[in-house]
UniProtKB/TrEMBL annotation:
Family stated for the protein in its record: Belongs to the MnmA/TRMU family.
Interaction with tRNA, annotated site positions: 126, 352
Catalytic residues, chain numbering: 101, 199
Keywords attached to this entry: ATP-binding, Cytoplasm, Disulfide bond, Nucleotide-binding, RNA-binding, Transferase, tRNA processing, tRNA-binding
Listed name of the protein: tRNA-specific 2-thiouridylase MnmA
InterPro entries: MnmA-like, MnmA-like_C, MnmA-like_central, MnmA-like_central_sf, Rossmann-like_a/b/a_fold
Start and end residues of each tRNA-specific 2-thiouridylase MnmA-like central domain: 209-273
Domain tRNA-specific 2-thiouridylase MnmA-like C-terminal: 283-368
HAMAP family (UniProt xref): tRNA_thiouridyl_MnmA
Matches recorded under SUPFAM superfamilies: Adenine nucleotide alpha hydrolases-like
Length: 379
C-alpha cells in the first residue's frame, strides 16, 4: 500500500513512519508547514510545526530511508483553524483548535491531496486504533495505553476518512516504549518534549493574543439574576470555569469565590456565580458526526459515555438525536445530538467538543452549542 506519513518533527510520528515501512508499505514522509512565520523556532515544549520541527522530521526520514517533502498548508491553516479560533472566541465560545486541525487539515486537506496523488492512506503518530467489524466497517477505538490515548482528538473523523487512515502506534503500551524504540533507531527526537498549549500561540498568552485580534471592550460582570457586580476589560479574555482575574470588588454574600458561568458576546457581558452552578446536566450540538458507521436508530436514546476534554475521564450518559428546542437559533427542523450525563459535567462551555464512546469505540462527536445547568437560577 502507498502511504503518506505525516511527520510533525516529533518522536511519535517518526516511529509511526518507520513502522509503516517495516509493515511493507511504500512510504513517503511529509511535513506540514502551518506557521506563517517560517523562521520561528520552538521553545521547549511550546509550539509546533516550526522550522526546527521540519528539520527534525527530515533527519528522521533520512534515517528511515524514505522520500521527504514539506507542504505549505499555512494559508489553509490560517483560514480553517486560526481564523475559526478567533471567530469562536468572538462569539463567546471556547473552541478546540486541535480538533479543527485534525478535522480540516490533517484528515481533510492533507488526505484529499494524498488521495489525489495516488496514496492509499495517511499515517500519523496518534495513539488510537482502527478495527474492522464483521461487515467490513472500520471503527475508531481507544489506544492500548489509556494515559496516552488520543482518540478524543480524532473523534471528528468520518467513515470515509477512517477508510484511509493508519495509526501504527495504537497498540503500543506506553510512550516510554516509543521513546526507547526511537533511540534504538537513532532518531535525534527520542527525548524531544511533547508539544503543549496552542501551537500558534507559542508564548502561551492566549488572552493577550486574542486582545490584539478581537479587541477588548469594557462591559458588565453580572450574577445569575442579572445584577451588576463589576466591570470587565474584554469578554474574550474569559472562559467558563475561570476563577482568577475577575476583579469583582464586592465579595459574595457567602464569602465563597465566584466563577465564570457564561460569556455573552452580543451584550458584552460576563456572568459569574458559585462553583456548584458550573455543574452541567445536559449538553447538545447540531454539528455532529459519526466516526464510522452511524447508529441505526440514533433518534432512540442509547447508553454511552461522553468525554468533553482530551484528558478528562469519560462519564456514563444517554444520547440521542432530537429536534432542536423551540427558540433555538438553528434553522427550523434542525437536529441536535443531545447528551445527558449520569452525573453533572463540570465547567462545560459552548464551542467545546463532546466525544461519544460505546465501550472503547469512538461513536461520534458534536461541537457543543448549548448547555443546561444542573443548578436552577435563583428566583
Amino acid at each position: 500500500m502507498k502511504v503518506l506519513a505525516a511527520m510533525s518533527g516529533g518522536v511519535d510520528s517518526a516511529v509511526a513512519a518507520a513502522r509503516a515501512v517495516e509493515a511493507g508499505h511504500e512510504v513517503v514522509g511529509v511535513h506540514l508547514a502551518l506557521s506563517r512565520m517560517p523562521g520561528t523556532l520552538r521553545t521547549g515544549s511550546r509550539g509546533c510545526c516550526t522550522i526546527e520541527d521540519s528539520m527534525d522530521a527530515q533527519r528522521a526520514a533520512n534515517i528511515i530511508g524514505i522520500p521527504y517533502y514539506v507542504w505549505d498548508f499555512s494559508e489553509r491553516f490560517k483560514l480553517d483553524v486560526v481564523d475559526d479560533f478567533i471567530a469562536e472566541y468572538a462569539a463567546g465560545r471556547t473552541p478546540n483548535p486541535c480538533m479543527r486541525c485534525n478535522e480540516r487539515i490533517k484528515f481533510a486537506a492533507l488526505l484529499e491531496k494524498a488521495l489525489a496523488l495516488g496514496f492509499d492512506a495517511v499515517a500519523t503518530g496518534h495513539y488510537a486504533s482502527i478495527t474492522t467489524d464483521a461487515d467490513g466497517n472500520r471503527e475508531l477505538h481507544r489506544a492500548a495505553a489509556w494515559a496516552k490515548d488520543q482518540s478524543y482528538v480524532l473523534g471528528v473523523l468520518t467513515a470515509d476518512q477512517l477508510a484511509h487512515s493508519m495509526f501504527p502506534l495504537g497498540a503500543t503500551p506506553s510512550k516510554a516504549e516509543v521513546r526507547a524504540e526511537a533511540a534504538e533507531r537513532g532518531f535525534s527526537v527520542a527525548n524531544k518534549p511533547d508539544s503543549h498549549d496552542i501551537c500558534f500561540i507559542p508564548d502561551g498568552d492566549t488572552r493577550g493574543w486574542l486582545a490584539d485580534r478581537v479587541g477588548a471592550e469594557r462591559g458588565d460582570i453580572l450574577d445569575r439574576t442579572g445584577a451588576k457586580l463589576g466591570v470587565h476589560e474584554g469578554a474574550t479574555a474569559y472562559t467558563v470555569g475561570q476563577r482568577r482575574g475577575l476583579q469583582i470588588g464586592t465579595p459574595a454574600a457567602d464569602g465563597k469565590p465566584r466563577f465564570v458561568l457564561e460569556v455573552r458576546p452580543v451584550t458584552n457581558t460576563v456572568v459569574v456565580g458559585p462553583k456548584e452552578a458550573l455543574a452541567i446536566g445536559e449538553i447538545a450540538g447540531t454539528k455532529y458526526t459519526w466516526a464510522g458507521k452511524a447508529p441505526e436508530t440514533p433518534e432512540v436514546a442509547f447508553d454511552c459515555e461522553v468525554q468533553i476534554r482530551a484528558h478528562a475521564d469519560p462519564v456514563p450518559a444517554v444520547a440521542q438525536v432530537v429536534p432542536v428546542p423551540d427558540g433555538s437559533d438553528s434553522a427550523p427542523g434542525a437536529l441536535e445530538l443531545r447528551i445527558t450525563p449520569a452525573e453533572p459535567l463540570n465547567g462545560v462551555a459552548p464551542g467545546q467538543t463532546a466525544v461519544v464512546y460505546v465501550g472503547t469505540r469512538v461513536l461520534g462527536q458534536c461541537t457543543i452549542d448549548r448547555t443546561v445547568s444542573a443548578v436552577p437560577v435563583p428566583a
